[in-house]
Each structure stands twice: as structure tokens, then as C-alpha cells.
Automatic annotation (TrEMBL):
Ranges for domain VOC: 5-130
InterPro entries referenced in this protein's UniProt entry, alphabetically: Glyas_Bleomycin-R_OHBP_Dase, Glyas_Fos-R_dOase_dom, VOC_core
Protein name (record): Glyoxalase superfamily protein PhnB
PANTHER family reported for this sequence: BNAUNNG04460D PROTEIN-RELATED (PTHR34109)
Source species: Kribbella rubisoli
Highest taxon listed in the record's lineage: Bacteria
Record-linked Pfam families: Glyoxalase (PF00903)
Length: 138
């Protein structure tokens, strides 16, 4: 049996147009689709970086956001890179763009070189060298 499924996330941003520009600048994502709504927001947008892709839209209803307890809200996005240098580079550009540092780049107890930041709307983004679903190489 061939598995053709892919996994994609979606986010409601209170200021989706600003989020698109920030995600481009801070993380290097490319906006591949941007459909404005009639209120100055975003009805539907798509972003990608290599094999990572997700959608976002304007959060008109004002969805509840979990608060961080310790170093996490309990969920977030994880982006896998090939090298520690890539993790270091995205951490540098993200924090320079105003991301809140949660974890500086470092080696985890289980062998993943990673960092975590929170974007201006407090979504968590972790960047690391481990690829989920692949055998550990440690």
C-alpha cells in the first residue's frame, strides 16, 4: 500500500497580513498564495519552506490561545533542518525580527540540536535537526 498523505497545519492570526510579512522575514517562508478578505485581512494564505507548507487566515472571532506553562503551550510547529548551522541561522533571523526566545540553539538530552521561539502572536516554532518519523541517528 502506498501512503500518499501529507500533513499541513493552519493558523488564525489576528493580524494575518503582518504575520505573512513577519514569517517571510523571520523564518524565510515564501508566501505562495494570498487571498485578501473584504476587511483588510486574509481569507486564505499559504506559505512554504522546502517541504514545509501551512495555511493561515485572519482570526476574526478572536480564538482562545493557550498560555505558556514553563517553556511550552503544549503544541506548536516543528521544522526539521539538515544542519545545526540552519538552526542557528533561523534563530538569529527570528530573534532579530522580534521573536521571543524560548530555547536558544542547543543539543537536547536525546540528541536533537534545536531552538524554540514564539512569534509576535505567541505561536511556538521549534527548529531542529531531528526528523520526526525517521530513526534517530544518535
Amino acid at each position: 500500500m502506498t501512503n500518499t498523505a501529507t500533513f499541513h497545519a493552519y493558523f488564525g492570526y489576528r493580524d494575518a497580513p503582518a504575520a505573512l510579512r513577519w514569517l517571510e522575514k523571520a523564518f524565510g517562508f515564501e508566501t505562495t498564495m494570498e487571498v485578501p478578505d473584504d476587511k483588510g485581512g486574509i481569507m486564505h494564505a499559504e506559505m512554504r519552506y522546502g517541504g514545509v507548507a501551512f495555511t493561515l487566515f485572519t482570526d476574526e472571532p478572536g480564538y482562545d490561545r493557550p498560555t505558556r506553562k514553563g517553556d511550552t503551550v503544549g503544541h506548536g510547529m516543528y521544522v526539521a533542518f539538515d544542519t545545526q548551522d540552519e538552526v542557528d541561522a533561523v534563530y538569529a533571523t527570528a530573534t532579530a525580527a522580534g521573536a521571543e526566545s524560548v530555547w536558544m540553539p542547543e543539543l537536547s538530552e536525546w540528541g536533537n540540536y534545536r531552538c524554540r521561539v514564539a512569534d509576535p502572536e505567541e505561536y511556538e516554532w521549534t527548529f531542529g535537526t531531528h526528523r520526526p518519523g525517521q530513526p534517530a541517528n544518535w
